[in-house]
């Protein structure tokens, strides 16, 4: 594969294991977990004081592989490669960039399909329910392991934005700046409803087997449907109309066939099938549930008071056509921060690509992010 000159190139995933019966990870539910494994990748080099670390938090279906390639023959780069590398928004010639797969995930970190030490078999649905706070708590252990006392920046889009906000609230003295993209203080009722439909599709699949399906094929059909439903929420009506409209899949005439007659039907079916090849149904259930649970007010009290306790500089970004996390949700955070006299900037980026825009329309995001990080370097305690 051709590696462009601004790429981080070949990268290796690493693993950090922590926790034991004597010192487990205590979850928000009160359950404990240990040992815990986190798979992560780093890009760039730490400075001597390790004050240049940027933590990238991934969205629902993401993972630790945010940039570069694992093998010269890889056909795809990391999920945010366009943003991470020499001269890019997260410039690896200046910053030490870290991305870890969340607990509950299915890309190496402890989750439902990892081995339960008590049984020697995959946890399945015996894995304890997790929260965004639990994901951050595990990341905190990794950050300490890497010798980082204070993160220069925590960044995330969508569920990653939830994690970035949680970092600023849970560990206010250990985060210098935060970039929260296409997220909010909680999921809307509508978003929770979409997640519930997706989980129901999985658990209604006869092959789900109560979550203990790892010796069989698993609930492939249910997971595909869940992804199809979710994928609609990631796109805007404009993007769907421009890409598909009412175009028929084959000839420009009705075939009176209930299967994939319209082009958009075939597209969603493809997205659902493709997703089942790289993701675990139980992880989908656990991660969407963690997103549902996230609620700053319920955990930390009134939004103004909760955010007033943060100390980080904030950049909040929304997208004009994002109806999963519309601008009003970002503005709610910004207004609360302004009321609490916090250092916050807000940008709405005009884009037709809906919620997925932070993965697609990255030119303007790059300029905004670079300027914000430059300003954060000049602010205390990083001012020279």
Highlighted features:
384 residues; alpha/beta; Rossmann fold; Rna Polymerase Sigma Factor, Chain: A; 2 domains; two-stranded antiparallel sheet
**How would the global form be characterised?**
globular
| CA gyration radius, whole angstroms | 21 Å
The fraction of residues assigned to DSSP E strands is 15-25%
Read across the widest sheet, the strand sequence of neighbours is 1-4-8-5-11-12-13-14
According to CATH, what is the topology of the largest domain?
A: Rossmann fold
CATH homology superfamily of the largest domain: Alpha/Beta hydrolase fold, catalytic domain
Strands, count? 14
Order of helices and strands: EEEEEEEEEEHEHEHHHHHHHEHEHH
Give the biggest sheet: 8 strands, mixed
Count of discrete structural domains: 2
Distance N terminus to C terminus?
41 Å
List low-confidence stretches: none
The overall average pLDDT, rounded, is 94
Q: Which structural class do the helices and strands define?
A: alpha/beta
Task: Report on the architecture of this protein.
The longest helix has 16 residues, at 189-204. Strand 13 (313-319), helix 10 and strand 14 (344-349) form a beta-alpha-beta unit. This protein folds into 2 domains: 14-187 and 295-378, Alpha/Beta hydrolase fold, catalytic domain (Rossmann fold); 192-288, Rna Polymerase Sigma Factor, Chain: A (Orthogonal Bundle), CATH 1.10.1740.110. Strands 1-4-8-5-11-12-13-14 form an 8-stranded mixed β-sheet, sandwiched between helices. Strands 2-3 form a two-stranded antiparallel sheet. Helix 1 (132-145) crosses helix 2 (159-170), helix 3 (189-204) runs antiparallel to helix 7 and helix 4 crosses helix 6 (263-276). The mean pLDDT is 94. The protein has 12 helices and 14 strands. The chain is an alpha/beta fold and 384 residues long.
């Amino acid at each position: 594969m051709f590696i462009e000159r601004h790429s981080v190139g070949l990268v290796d995933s690493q693993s950090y294991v922590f926790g034991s019966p004597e010192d487990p990870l205590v979850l928000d539910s009160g359950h404990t977990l240990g040992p815990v494994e986190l798979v992560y990748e780093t890009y760039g080099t730490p400075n001597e004081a390790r004050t240049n670390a940027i933590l990238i938090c991934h969205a629902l279906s993401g993972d630790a592989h945010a940039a570069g390639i694992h093998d010269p023959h890889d056909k795809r780069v990391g999920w945010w490669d366009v943003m991470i590398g020499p001269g890019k928004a997260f410039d690896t010639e200046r910053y030490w960039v870290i991305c870890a797969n969340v607990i509950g995930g299915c890309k190496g970190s402890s989750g439902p399909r990892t081995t339960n030490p008590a049984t020697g078999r995959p946890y399945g649905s015996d894995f304890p329910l997790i929260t965004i706070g639990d994901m951050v708590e595990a990341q905190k252990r990794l950050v300490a392991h890497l010798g980082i006392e204070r993160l220069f920046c925590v960044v995330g889009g969508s569920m990653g934005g939830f994690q970035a906000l949680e970092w600023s609230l849970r560990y206010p003295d250990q985060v210098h700046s935060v970039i929260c993209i296409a997220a909010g203080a909680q999921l809307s009722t509508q978003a929770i409803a979409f997640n519930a439909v997706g989980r129901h599709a999985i658990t209604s699949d006869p092959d789900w087997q109560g979550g203990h399906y790892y010796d069989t094929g698993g609930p492939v059909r249910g997971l595909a449907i869940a992804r199809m439903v979710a994928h609609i929420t990631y796109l805007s009506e404009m993007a769907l109309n421009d890409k598909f409209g009412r175009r028929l899949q084959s000839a420009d005439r009705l075939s009176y066939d209930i299967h994939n007659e319209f082009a958009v039907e075939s597209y969603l079916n493809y997205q659902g099938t493709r997703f089942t090849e790289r993701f675990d149904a139980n992880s989908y259930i656990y991660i969407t549930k963690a997103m549902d649970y996230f609620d700053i007010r319920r955990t930390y009290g009134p939004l103004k008071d909760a955010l007033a306790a943060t100390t980080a500089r904030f950049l909040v970004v929304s997208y004009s056509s994002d109806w999963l996390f519309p601008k009003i949700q970002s503005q709610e955070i910004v207004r609360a921060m302004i009321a609490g006299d916090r250092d916050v900037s807000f940008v709405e980026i005009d884009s037709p690509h809906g919620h997925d825009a932070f993965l697609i329309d990255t030119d303007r995001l790059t300029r905004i992010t670079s300027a914000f990080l430059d300003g954060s370097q000049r602010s205390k305690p990083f001012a020279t």
